[in-house]
Amino acid sequence: MNDAHTPAFRFLQDIAANLSREKLVFPTFSQATIKVRTALEDPDIDAERLGKIVSTEPLLAARLVQMANSAALNPGGKPVGDVRSAILRVGLSSVRSVAVAVALEQLRDGAQSPAMRPFAEAAWRHSLQVAAIAYVLAKRLSRINPDEALFAGLVHDIGHFYLLSRASAYPEMEQNPEELAEILGQWHASIGQAVLHDLHVSDALIEAVGEHENRHYRSPLRSLSDIVSLANIAASKTNPVPSLRVDPVSVIKEPDIVDALNDARGEIVALATTLRG
Predict the structure, then answer these.
(1) Is residue 202 assigned to a domain?
(2) What is the pLDDT of residues 139-179, one digit of tens each?
(3) What is the pTM of this model?
(4) From the CA atom positions of the chain, what is the Rg in Å?
């Protein structure tokens, strides 16, 4: 990989050059995500005004209503049928996460190369799984805002999507998926940090993204990094890079964490399914 004449070396040179620019060339979020993010920066935004913005994006609106009616958020079984009511049920913070889930789905579907699509599909599904687990862990075992944990889980592998978007310009990479997987495994966490730094997210989130593959967390869970790392371990079987997978049973030893994950299996499945659409 260090040979200056190899496609992998040229690819990594291009990555380094792009990351050194002031603005990253990467369609991280869809127009819907940008509009929602801008609206949520208004401290006076309410569910009715945000609902009107969300309603202009049919897929996002439908996904929010679906999430509000999911088993995870509607244990009483009383359905809602409009966007405003859905926002009130899921909360303003969760609207951002649902918008990101839709954007990641669009990034997956937008993979130009057939060789890249399996990588994008795997990263998307793993992100949804980690997000659902992170939400449950935050709610049950920490004082971290569950909505923040959900968002962090969704974007923890954003570096994968960045690398895949750049790799599509290198047809030679398609011929060596093992080498691409190695690059993804080694670079995606640090590149994810750079992408999120460019989007001006919190330092806690940037730290969590940079450390999520370290297989380390503190118990009791005290930080966003603890939660995302633990969720990534718990969802390890779906990690898009096979060499990074571990056996969760061999890593997670704390009885309270094991019990919480077992008790919340239905909630995790329901939330991940809702985000998947």
Answers:
(1) yes
(2) 999 999 888 898 899 889 988 888 887 887 777 777 788 88
(3) 0.81
(4) 19
In the three-class reduction of DSSP (H, G, I as helix; E, B as strand; rest coil), residue 105 is classed as helix
Residue 9 within a domain: no
CATH of the domain at 233: 1.10.3210.10
Separation between Cα atoms, residue 17 and residue 10, nearest integer Å:
11
Instruction: Report the number of distinct structural domains present in the chain.
Output: 1
| 75 close to 65: Cβ distance less than 8 angstroms | no
In whole angstroms, what separates CA 63 from the centre of its chain?
16
**What one-letter code names the amino acid at 242?**
P
What does the pLDDT look like over 190-249, one tens digit per residue? 988 888 876 667 899 999 999 999 999 999 999 999 999 999 999 999 999 999 999 999
How many CB atoms within 10 Å of residue 58? 10
Q: Is residue 25 part of a domain?
A: yes
Q: Is residue 4 part of a domain?
A: no
